[in-house]
Amino acid sequence: MQLKTLWTAICIWVMLSFALPLICSGEASLSNQIFQSDFPPLMESIQFKNDIKFCGVKIPLENRDVKERLEKEMLLALWSRPQVILWIKRAARFFPHVEKILKEYDLPLDLKYVPIIESALRPHAASAKGAVGYWQFLKSTGKHHGLRIDSQVDERRNIFKSTHAACRYLKDLEKQFGSYLLAMSAYNMGEYGLNREIKSQKNNDFFSLYLPLETQRYVFKAISAKLIIENQKSYGFHLKKSDLYPPLAFDKVNFKSDFQIPIALIANAADIPFKMIKDYNPQLRGYYLEKGNIDILIPKGRAKRFKKIFNSRYKNWKQIYKTKFHIVKSGDSLLGISNKYQMSFLYLLKLNNLSVKSMIHPGDRLLIE
Fold this sequence. Notes:
two-stranded antiparallel sheet; single chain; 54% helix; 369 residues; Lysozyme
């Protein structure tokens, strides 16, 4: 008991030793004023004075349940101020490209807030259920909508490819359900699940449907993201243009090769780090660019000089490494090839971006060194 009393006394003394100088000098009062001016009171942040629309739909705030749901998501978003700052900074980098693609499909620009709430605009974001990338596609759904997903490339991580796939998917969902809010719900929970709920409840009004809790929150999260990002200063976010991440600017270069090309060779020719190639092309997996015809992005302004340098270095590399390949013959196996060249089986897989389940065929060219 005495120990507890002593500890309490020490805590009070520490707090007073910090607070008293500020109180005596009047700085505590000034500090509170600055805090209040920079960060509006949370209650003020949920006083919705004007009509709110999302994808052209007026949000019925006169419905107390709807207002409560929006208030909850607004308060939770505003509580995580560092996350909101990252939203705003990343939006400056990616929204110009996302908006352009949405316009191509004649979709509402408000749908750009879907990848904000799905992944916070992070290419490598992954969920426990296996959803990956900016728009959080499951592997099966991504492939169904035209994305390449394998051991060498995962286009869910490509902002352009994944946005095109998401636009096709959302456009189909809107045709099926007749509402972008329902389309977003189906995007989150699956069209079969949503269709089942609509039939069971005999109701197709988003705001009065009883859906899985995650889906009930989904649209309101997007609305909150829109309100905050489009009214940043009102919510205490005073970012200057120089604070934002610059829009993604790039040159596109094409490769046609019968060999797998080391990404390090491409980076060297572009005079940039290996990491930058991976950052500009997060869909690439491993250390090699697959054989065939493929486009990748490099920093803007480097394409013209890059082509000349790369062609020269590629010829030299091809001469050096042409004996470093094994041409698969009938009856060959990955294990047999690794034994033949006295190399680790797992290293052979890594060199060629293969998995233990990969199949090889006569005529395939495998890198062995």
